[in-house]
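This part of the workshop introduces the protein records we will be handling. A record pairs a protein's sequence with a compact description of its fold. Backbone structure tokens are a discrete shorthand for how the chain folds in space. The question running through the whole workshop is how a given chain folds. The record below serves as our worked example for the rest of this section.
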Amino acid sequence: MPRSTPSLDMTPLVDLAFLLVTFFILTSSFRQPEPVTVDVPTSTNDSIIPKSVFLITIDKDGRTFVDITYPAVKGRVFKSVTSKFNVNPTVEDSIKFVGTSSIGLRAGEILDYLSKEPADRNKYEMKGIPYDTTKPSTESQLYWWAMYARVAAFNDYNDRKEKAAALKQPFDPRTRLRFAIKADAKTKYDVVQAVIKIFRDAKIKEFEMITGLEDKVGQQ
């Protein structure tokens, strides 16, 4: 029989590759840039930052920003905080908020911020979430962000645990929302202490301090 060189039509494979690329582009959500950059102090702790975290970021000027990386809890906290301070967001506002990154605004300024186009939000001046070291924690908006985050995280954890038990599915207890503080190396100590006090007053007993990994080269 005469010999022939086998051939393979690659057209369907190329079409499939472009379809997959298009799918991931259309379904991906790009994270908004952080409104503030902090230079964290270094340490020898190489633990990984939790994926689900309530994070308070403090810049060198003492401004505080809040970010919640767990969408389900973030939506609940936003609803509770806005209700506490008599702000009435729409469903669309809530969806927009869940897609934002760190936010450092008074409760009454959030809706104006969300009404901006994503490109214009980067230019929005954030003065930090209000807190006062001379007054009780309950009089600061930052306290209520932490308090409602703890309550929402607790309820979400129990709901998922009960659902898993009802469906007889395995449940990982490590999926609970974690709490953390990330402060600039030049932040004043009393500011960090005030944020820690807010966590304590909100009955958040466990939290982490975010640091950079220290270079161990040349150390004893």
The mean pLDDT is 85. The CA atoms of residues 147 and 202 lie 5 Å apart.
